[in-house]
Structures are given as C-alpha cells and as structure tokens.
Design goal:
By secondary structure, the chain is α+β, with helices and mostly antiparallel strands. The chain has a single domain, classed as Chemotaxis protein chec. Helices cover 34% and strands 25% of the residues. Strands 1-7-8-4-3-5 form a 6-stranded antiparallel β-sheet. Strands 2-6 form a two-stranded antiparallel ribbon. The chain is globular, with a radius of gyration of 16 Å. The mean pLDDT is 93.
C-alpha cells in the first residue's frame, strides 16, 4: 500500500488539509496503527508527510552518523526543526503549522502528491515549476540497474 496521485486540496484558516480516504487507509497501514500517526517536515520546497515508524527509523539513522559534514548538519537542522508529529483528526484532516506553510509557500490551496511511502504538500505553482516542467528524458541513466521505465 502506498500514496499515489496528485490531488488539489483546500487549506482551511487553521492550516488543515483533508486527506482523502485512500491516503488515510495507506497511512493507517504504513503507520501500523489505527490512529495513523505521522511526521510532517519541511524539505525540497514542500511539506513531507511520513508515517511515524518510517520517520523514527530515519531519525535514528540520522542521529547515528558520527562527525557529519557541515552540509549534513544543515540538512538535519532543516528537517528536524521543521518536524511535527501528529495524527489526522476525526474528519481526516492534518494540521500544518505556520512555519511549514511558510516554508512551502502554501496559503489556501495545495497539491497533495503521493510519493510511495510518503506524501508531499506543494504550492501548486511551485510543483508545476519544480516538477512538471522538468526534462526527464535522461532519467534512465540515474535508475539503479534492473529498474527500467515501463512506459
């Protein structure tokens, strides 16, 4: 089970976004809990939603790195300082804080973008510029051996 698709979403005045049923189901499955706990963090010009067990595994691996480079320390500051942990409310909404909304440039509309075991929340214009308008013609050279494009 994974997160798929690009879905336009409204953001209410409290910074909440409604997850569609298929995302709530995937989150419950991947979080291995009925409440669907997740971490939300800032990265790559968007807000990333990660099921809590995957986030905790990532966090532990980051903490285990001895003598990280300056760039890695800055990366760690970005994702850790932008992180919050929570669960969807009874109506399936998740809440982004003001720092997360500001980092991603999100105000009243967002794209909810599935990305396998995580999802991303993007300002629609930023997603179109940073993702949709890119040239992917040479991407096959970056794929691991044995992973070919099926289309």
């Amino acid at each position: 089970m994974s997160f798929r698709g690009r879905i336009p979403r409204n953001v209410d005045n409290q910074g909440r976004i409604m997850l569609p049923p298929e995302y709530r189901e995937a989150l419950t499955h991947l979080a291995k809990s009925e409440d669907g706990k997740l971490a939300l963090t800032t990265y790559d010009d968007c807000v990333v939603g990660i099921p809590l067990p995957l986030w905790l595994e990532f966090e532990n691996k980051l903490q285990a790195i001895k003598n990280p480079s300056e760039k890695l320390r800055k990366f760690k500051r970005l994702v850790m300082s932008g992180a919050t942990v929570g669960a969807p409310d009874s109506q399936g909404r998740i809440r982004l804080n003001q720092d997360q909304l500001g980092y991603a440039g999100i105000a009243d509309e967002a794209y909810l973008v599935g990305n396998s075991e995580r999802f991303e929340l993007w300002l629609p214009q930023r997603f179109e510029e940073n993702v949709l308008r890119q040239d992917y013609s040479d991407i096959s050279s970056e794929l691991p051996e044995g992973v070919g494009l099926i289309f």
